[in-house]
Request: fold
Amino acid sequence: MSRKIIRNGRIVTAIDDYVADILVEDGQIQAIGRKLACGSDTESIDATGLMVLPGGVDCHTHMDNTFGDSTTCDSFESGTRSAAFGGTTTIVDFAFQRQGVSVLEAIERAQAKGREGACIDYGFHVIVTSVNQQTLADMQHAIRHEGVSSFKMFMAYPGSVMVDDAAIFQAMRMVGQHGGMIALHAENGTIIELLIQEALAQGHTAPKYHALTRPAIMEGEATHRGIKLAELAQAPVYFVHLSAKEALKHVVEARDMGVPVFAETCPHYLFFDESVYDSEDFDLARYVMSPPLRSKEAQNALWTALRTDDLQLVSTDHCPFCMKEGHLGRVNQKPYGRNDFSRIPNGIPGVETRLTTIHDGGVRAGRISLNRMVELTATAPAKLFGLYPRKGTIAVGSDADLVLFDAGQSHVISAATQHGNCDFTLFEGREVTGTVRKVFLRGELLVDGEQWLGRAGAGQYVARGESGGW
Ligand code: URP
Ligand code: ZN
Ligand code: ZN
Reply:
């Protein structure tokens, strides 16, 4: 039996804040208390002066995900190592039901990648791109027997992953009856496609046109439509990467009416705004993600919504593509769209910077409380996606996924010192106060300062319970 005791840390959960010891036995929290007694065979870690946070749960990452001709530059190994250095110990990534691959095969393939590469624990949502009776039966099976209770569907990207309203409605109706939830990428795909084609026809090929052809009002429209479909289907619905005030408005209204609508936003929408799209420079490809960055006013509204629980989660949408073609052998990265913004792979890195940026720009800036930070980045994701109480909190019986956090220690964020494969971070050069010192996964030390003690394949697949019931 392996035993560790973490002494004198300031334990911060979504609701607690106190100093105590944590006894860990065989990967789980065995006891929490002051001056806990333990045998001499117990390894002792002094956490005096440090916060002890539950390991982060990031429910929106894309490790080794292929979109069109481009594959994200992080493998399961590099991406989960990066996550661990950022204080995240569980991710929910994506299995992809594409042409000729069933939902269940998609899960199997994704699990195989995780088994081989994951350094932290992981689960999957399935991206569903077509719906028929077999798909619906497979989804039901996935919820009940595979620990996959959430499914992402795209209202954008026609001709590739977009599904129509009827498909979304059918899927919602089924998962709503079986403890699952549909996560929607809400942008009006056909209108956006029209705007893209018009922009290209006028010779507008630069990255900034990515943002100009994806207006906030079309995120609002799709969000409203998604909510109405969910209401009719009597199912919970989750909006990924919510960025626009026009979308938030509908989420707030629905929640006020008691409709089970949930939404996340991401750090990039909280720290950057559309003013970056100010030139025709290709370097702006680093800001190409969907939805694009929005107004300063929208950013303020997102922060308010995080405080008031109109938004429930901060996820990263870690979907990294390199700025330099060929970096670490990766091809079809951002330069793939040098002459046509619509070919720039959509997405940016972020899995390593969530905790420190939200702590610095959220808690220290007085926008959210410390408890709320933990709730947004660990507890709420675990609850909403069927991982709680095994993950997302510090409690007797929970997995000993623990982050020792030095809230007063500053550091400067740089891609050069990060631990994933991407060659840039939007936060380059930003000084943040708050540094991850040690990270434990089920009691095993993965990160010790700059030292990496983790291992590919050590992460476990976590079969999730029901989603959307919280
Ligand atoms: O630009 C983004 N968000 N890329 C990742 C895929 C998605 O839509 O989440
Ligand atoms: Zn999306
Ligand atoms: Zn995504």
